[in-house]
Amino acid sequence: MDNLGRLDVEALRQLVTLKENSGKLNRLESKRQRLKEEIDRVEEQIREFLGQFPEVRGYLATAGGSLRRLTPSGRRPRGWIRSQVEDVLREAIEPMTPAEVRDEIARKHPEEATKNLYLAIFQHLRRHDEFSQDDSGRWLMTQKESA
Questions:
Q1: Mean predicted confidence (pLDDT) in 37-59
Q2: CA 140, 109, 86: angle at the middle one, nearest 5?
Q3: Domain 80-141's class?
Q4: Largest CA distance in the chain
Q5: Which of 127, 140, 132, 130 is nearest to 100 (CA)?
Q6: What is the pLDDT of residues 85-115, one digit of tens each?
Q7: Are residues 112 and 105 in contact, defined by beta-carbon separation less than 8 angstroms?
Q8: Confidence band (pLDDT; 50, 70, 90) for 80?
Q9: CB neighbours of 75 closer than 8 A, spacing ≥ 6?
Q10: pLDDT by residue (tens digit) across 8-44?
């Protein structure tokens, strides 16, 4: 309590604001957690529903996927971006911009046309040596020589 006497008015205001907002922050975080749990429950119900159909199970068996992949918050399988970018650039007649690569992937896989697809493609192109950028900012596959 003695420390409160040493605080100036502005510091006391900040302390009061912090105390008031910490309760609000705790309530918001609790609400966020409840909503995440509700999303998980709904997605589980979706997976259970889809799992009833042999066509869905057959598709997943041939595509190497899981029911988790069929729900909105499911993540792309590891290496999916890489394989898609490689396929698009391998088939391309000329170098492409990341936006053109994104458009081509989105044309083939409309369910993957999310807001972060462009960023994932751009980051992948920048991070891997099998892609090179020309002077106009377009990307192409680097030709690997066979040994």
A1: 79
A2: 20
A3: mainly alpha
A4: 78
A5: 140
A6: 999 999 998 999 999 999 999 888 877 777 8
A7: yes
A8: confident
A9: 68, 69
A10: 888 888 888 887 778 887 788 889 899 989 988 887 8
Burial class, 47, CB count within 10 angstroms (exposed 0-12 / middle 13-18 / buried 19+): middle
DSSP-derived 3-state class of residue 63: helix
Lowest-confidence segment of 45-54, 100-109, 115-124 by average pLDDT? 45-54
CA-to-CA distance for 136 and 128, rounded, in angstroms? 19
Distance CA 128, CA 12 (A): 53
Contacts of the segment 138-142: beta carbons below 8 A, 24+ positions apart: 138/94, 138/95, 138/96, 138/97, 139/89, 139/95, 139/96, 139/97, 139/98, 139/101, 140/89, 140/92, 140/94, 140/95, 140/96, 141/86, 141/89, 141/90
Q: State which H helix or E strand residue 132 sits in.
A: strand 131-133
Whole-angstrom Cα distance, residue 51 to residue 41? 15
DSSP summary character for residue 96: B
